[in-house]
Every structure is written in C-alpha cells, then in structure tokens.
Specification:
Blueprint (H helix, E strand, L loop, with lengths): L4 H18 L3 E6 L7 H16 L3 E6 L2 H10 L6 E2 L2 E2 L3 H25 L4 E5 L6 E5 L10 E6 L2 H8 L3 E5 L1 E4 L4 E3 L2 H11 L4 E6 L17 E3 L3 H6 L7 H13 L4 E6 L5 H7 L5 E5 L1
Parallel strand pairs: 1-2, 1-11, 2-8, 5-8, 6-9, 11-13, 12-14
Antiparallel strand pairs: 3-4, 6-7, 9-10, 13-14
Helix pairs in contact: 3-4, 6-8
C-alpha cells in the first residue's frame, strides 16, 4: 500500500509529542529473542535505536545471545545444560560465553548500529566495574552464574554524554576475581534503575502478558506492580514469564517510570512503543 506525502507528514507530526517527552531522557532496551536471529527484524531494531538516538533520546542497549552461545558450544562439542531456565556455566563455559557475548555479538551489534548511521560503543559488565556480581546461591549449583550486587552507571553516562549508544554484554566480574554469566533481563532492569531511566523495554517473542496463554487476543496492556502477586498466584504469570515480570517490577519500584514487555517479532516495535499510544505489549507501572 502506497502512503501519500500528507500521510507521511502526519506520522511525523503525531510522533512529535513523544519525541519532546523523551528527548534527553534515558531509555534502556533489552535486546533478545527472535529479533536477534531474524535478519530483517535485527535490521529494524538497529534502525529504531539509531533513530531514537538521532532525535535526542539516550538509548542504552543491553543484550544476551543465547543462540550464539549455543552455536559456539556446538562447534567445540560442549553440551548446553539448563537448570530452572538458567544456563549451567562451568569454568570452560564462562570463557565460551565471554567469547560469544563480548567478542562476537557485542561487536556485531556495534557494527550494525554504525552501518545505520549511529555512533555506538561496546561494553561488558567487566569494563570499569560496570556490573559487579557474586556467585548465585540456591538449592542447585549453577556454576559461574552470577547475581548482581552493584551497578556503576558512570561509564554508561560518560558514553551517553559523548553521544554514543552504549551496547552492553551481560558478562560481569566479582570481587573474587572470577567472571560470571548474568541474566540479560536482570541486568537490563538493574542498569535501568541505576540510570534512573525513563523507560525499560524488554523485547520478547510473545505479544506480552496474556490472560490466556493460548490466546494472543487476551493481551493485558497495563499491569500495576500491586497486581503482579495475584497474577502469579492465579497462574496468569508462570514459567519463564515470572522472572521477566519480576525484573520489570524491580525496575519500577527502583524509580524507572515504566517497564514494557514488547513483541519483538513485529518490525519497528520499539518505535511503535515509544511514539504511539497503542504500544505492542504489556506496560508495568507503579
């Protein structure tokens, strides 16, 4: 369908209030899911982020890289093992995760952003003690999987103030000198809170929080933090959705204005979320 010039102009006019609202504000985007492996979606996300940056919004991109880690494990004959949704990470594995995330995925994202006209810089949690972690404690040993004890936002702020888009791989170091694999959703939430971000956006492979998991028309567009415990009790939030929504809740409770789980399968979902009232997922607010 061809869009005429007047309609194109109207799209820009409609976006103006949102641009004015977010200009100079920090938005943290956790990039993952199908948008990381589908080349068309990947290109759309990179363009979205560059556009946001060019209109004065300070974007921080936090990423994981499960498919790339799996590919590297397969190449070296290493078997992936998961416990309660978290990758068991032994000493050899943490080296492979570092290679895949900080070495491959991070630099590919920086390159793509720059190919689309952005100015990006790659970081990981080890750089300037950006993320400090300790070994995750629990009933089962997860190896070198870490839980965040501290986020130092200054390196990120320095990059933003110089006009860069920080691209952060979620590998961190502990005060014990070890490196730890960190869940990317958790890292994004902690980083957003430390930066007092205006918005946290988690990209997912579903429409958002569904009242009926088998019916994508049952999307719940807005959830208050106070409603989350009852949603978990009633099974509306279950499985892998529990840690995701808990990350959003923590970010909002720590001062982030809103956290949104968006459908990363839709091209330009980041722009739709930022520059319209419709949104493409579930928004968590206080």
């Amino acid at each position: 369908m061809k869009v005429n010039i007047a309609d194109r102009a109207q799209v820009l006019v409609d976006a103006l209030p949102y641009i004015q609202k977010y200009t100079g504000k920090i938005v943290v985007v956790k990039y993952g899911g199908n948008a990381m492996i589908n080349d068309e979606l990947k290109q759309a996300v990179m363009r979205d982020i560059v556009l946001l940056s060019l209109v004065g919004i300070q974007v921080v991109l936090v990423h994981g890289g499960g498919p790339e880690i799996n590919d590297l494990f397969a190449k070296v004959g290493k078997q992936s093992r998961f416990i309660n949704g978290l990758r068991y990470t032994d000493k050899e594995s943490v080296d492979l995760v570092l290679m895949a995330l900080a070495g491959k995925v991070n630099k590919e994202l920086v390159l793509r952003l720059q190919q689309n006209g952005g100015l990006a810089i790659g970081l990981c949690g080890v750089d300037s003690n950006l993320i400090i972690a300790q070994k995750m404690q629990g009933e089962q040993d997860l190896g070198f999987v870490g839980e965040i004890t501290e986020v130092n936002p200054q390196p990120i702020l320095d990059c933003l103030n110089q006009g860069y888009i920080p691209v952060i791989a979620t590998i961190s170091a502990g005060k014990d000198g070890e490196m730890y694999n960190i869940n990317a959703d958790t890292a994004a939430a902690k980083i957003a809170a430390a930066l007092h971000a205006e918005n946290l956006i988690l990209m997912t492979d579903i429409s958002g929080l569904l009242r009926d998991v088998g019916d994508e028309q049952s999307l719940i567009p807005v959830v208050k933090v106070s409603e989350v415990p009852s949603f978990i009790r009633d099974g509306i939030v279950s499985g892998g959705m529990i840690p995701k929504i808990n990350c959003c809740v923590e970010a909002v409770r720590r001062g982030v204005k809103k956290a949104v789980m968006i459908d990363g399968r839709q091209p330009h979902s980041v722009l739709v979320e930022m520059f319209s009232n419709e949104g493409v997922g579930t928004m968590i607010i206080e």
